[in-house]
Amino acid sequence: MSQYNEKSEIKVLGIDLAKNSFQLHGVDAEGNTILKKNLKRDKLSAFIANLPVCLIGMEACGGSQHWVRQFTEMGHDVRMMAPQFVKPYVKSNKNDAVDAEAICEAVQRPNMRFVPTKSIEQQDIQSLQRIRSQVVARRTALANQTRGLLLEYGITIPKGISYIRKQVPLILENAENGLTPLFRELLNELYEEMVHLDERKETLEQKLEQISQHSEDCQRLLTIPGVGLLTATALVAAIGDINVFKNGRELAALLGLVPRQHSTGGKPTLLGISKRGDSHLRTLLIHGGRTVVRVANQYQDKRNRWVNDIEQRRGKNISAVAVANKNARIAWALLSQKTTFKAAVEVAGI
């Protein structure tokens, strides 16, 4: 069932995205509902192209970045919102029409937080990151499987990918370890698959390196202690337009590196970090923070004295998260000011 009043002009349009079916809800300048319509995927672009320029809202989900870019090229003002920010505007029971109406209402709120739009280049970088993560996960699973199978034959290998690479060829060459010809063949196949995954991982990292070398923003981020190739490219892919964030804390909050709050009655209560946003990028920043914490005692500059002080008071894990939070804020400053990180470093004992 559809409803469309052509006499009024749509000013705000909410779209509930799906794979093949899209629900639209449009209102005029006074907020009156003038459009309720369901469209199939092949009809959506043509319908939006024929609409007057308006504000279009949608939830950030699979495929939303594609539609944002497409509708923006048509001249519309397109904004994405996190689903949890739209949910409070859903009235009564949930269905596509109610969701579209809620999106239309939420996108008009002056204090609504919107999700940055990614360019095609940013999505390419993010795809490389995700594929690399999958390759590493598969390699880890393969190593654990190899170690577990050999244990059933009385052969132990210490934890670590490097031990698998070194000892499996020696095990295959040893004719007196009691392995059957069938298992030797299977073990060799597992080893060859691990070698293939190593090569695949190296190829993906080479592509990220090429992207980094041609990106000024990546080169700026690489000057931050604790930020390497993976973190720099992931930040560039995730941030988009740095001007979307008012300050560094907003970027850190997007990555889930700021404390959760549960305050009432004027009594502030801060909990652990919120862990919102991109878990992959947050993990990279925290791993980089651990590297900084590990070598901080070798330097006597202001930054490393701060790191050492936190480590002594709160431990290595909390200090690593604190460094990750600071690095996110520094990243915002470097990208917004178009500069590089500079710090006076004094080596301990010199």
Describe the structure concisely.
The protein has 350 residues and is α/β, with parallel strands linked by helices. It is built from 13 helices and eight strands. Helix 5 crosses helix 9 and helix 10 crosses helix 13.
Description:
The protein has 350 residues and is an alpha/beta fold. The protein contains 13 helices and eight strands. It has helices at 41-49, 64-73, 83-86, 96-106, 120-151, 161-173, 181-213, 216-221, 229-239, 248-254, 279-295, 302-314, 316-337; strands at residues 3-4, 12-16, 21-27, 33-40, 55-59, 77-81, 259-261, 270-273. Strands 1-4-3-2-5-6 form a six-stranded mixed sheet, with helices on both faces. Strand 3 (21-27) and strand 4 (33-40) form a beta hairpin. 29% of the residues are buried. Residues 345-350 have low confidence and may be disordered.
**Structure class:** alpha/beta
Helical stretch tally: 13
Number of domains: 3
Give the SSE order as H and E letters: EEEEHEHEHHHHHHHHEEHHH
* Average of the residue pLDDT scores: 90
Cα distance spanning the termini: 78 Å
Multimer state: single chain
Indicate the low-confidence ranges by residue numbers: 345-350
Major sheet: 6 strands, mixed
Beta strands, count: 8
* Dominant shape: globular
* Beta-strand content bin: 5-15%
State the share of residues found in helices, binned by percent.
Answer: 40-55%
Which features would summarize this protein structure in a list?
350 residues; alpha/beta; Nucleotidyltransferase, domain 5; 3 domains; six-stranded mixed sheet; two-stranded antiparallel sheet; 8 strands; 11% strand; disordered C terminus
